[in-house]
């Protein structure tokens, strides 16, 4: 095999923007659910200001905000694309994949902040007088299965399930890419996607319910596989951008209407459990591909801006925000009788971003510098 230059820089700047948008969607959804859990629906969305029943407009807005959890699937899509593309470039450049270095790089990116929060969790739980969560399942990255088995979300680790799914992906993916001939890789990625569909069909058929369909690693591996399929097509230059602008506008418009009119994470029946989400994911995949690679994209950025930086700290934004919600409510809003929804949202967003910046600059960056020492293919600028 011809040895190619490994000094090329694999960096898709606008992926940072998409990361932040995905994280912000989740932040708003979690904060909204926290507010509704304490004070009911916002007055302007509820009937007669009773905060219990939604108006028609309120119902659409409620769906739109709660559907922000879809941001997790956007994260999976990005991760599946980027991890697979980097592995393909490494394999093409060096003839192999250094799996040990892959694991070290992923460890330096995820583990420092993840285990920092695991370490400080007992202090937070004691301060808020919350029930003690299961630390072992989180420390060993099977938090998603623990929540699935108990059918309960445990503070402050409720949202750690998605990181566990990512870790399971990391355990498998480099081996698949390393030891599968390139001509068969696309078949492998499609197989993973279909296995995920079959798993959800089985869970639905046997009445396993929401938690298995939402949290099981097999249930969520398909979106990572969709990202991998996109990476394979882009790497092999078979990804084309031929959809006219008017068709994209119509497709995005339909997406927005559906996003507002129906809940995303409802799995009643085989079709909803197995197939409906691919419309949403497909539209986002098309939009992401055009945003990243199409010079005729509907919108783009000619140079870096604050959104790119916020994308770099998006891991912290995702991790800190949900933990901050009970702290803000129980230690600030309630004690000081500051029950104002706009103040609450402002506080959650502002504190999340400020803490994430501090965490990134003073803590995470130190490990990211170490991560670069184990790069086979450069992945930053």
Overall description:
There is one protein chain. This protein is mainly alpha-helical. It contains 16 helices and no strands. Mean pLDDT is 93; it is low at 1-6.
Give the H and E element order.
Answer: HHHHHHHHHHHHHHHH
Strand content: under 5%
What does the average pLDDT come to?
Answer: 93
Biggest sheet architecture: none
Number of strands: 0
The geometry reads as globular
Please work out how many helical segments DSSP would assign: 16
Unreliable residue stretches: 1-6
Q: How many domains comprise the coordinates?
A: 1
How large is the radius of gyration? 21 Å
Structure classification: mainly alpha
Helix content: over 70%
**Gap between N and C termini:** 29 Å
Task: Output the keywords.
381 residues, mainly alpha, disordered N terminus
Describe the structure concisely.
The chain is mainly alpha-helical and 381 residues long. It has 16 helices and no strands.
How do the helices and strands line up, and which of them pair or pack?
Elements: H1 13-39, H2 56-66, H3 71-94, H4 99-128, H5 135-139, H6 143-150, H7 161-179, H8 182-205, H9 210-215, H10 217-235, H11 245-261, H12 270-274, H13 277-293, H14 306-312, H15 314-333, H16 341-372
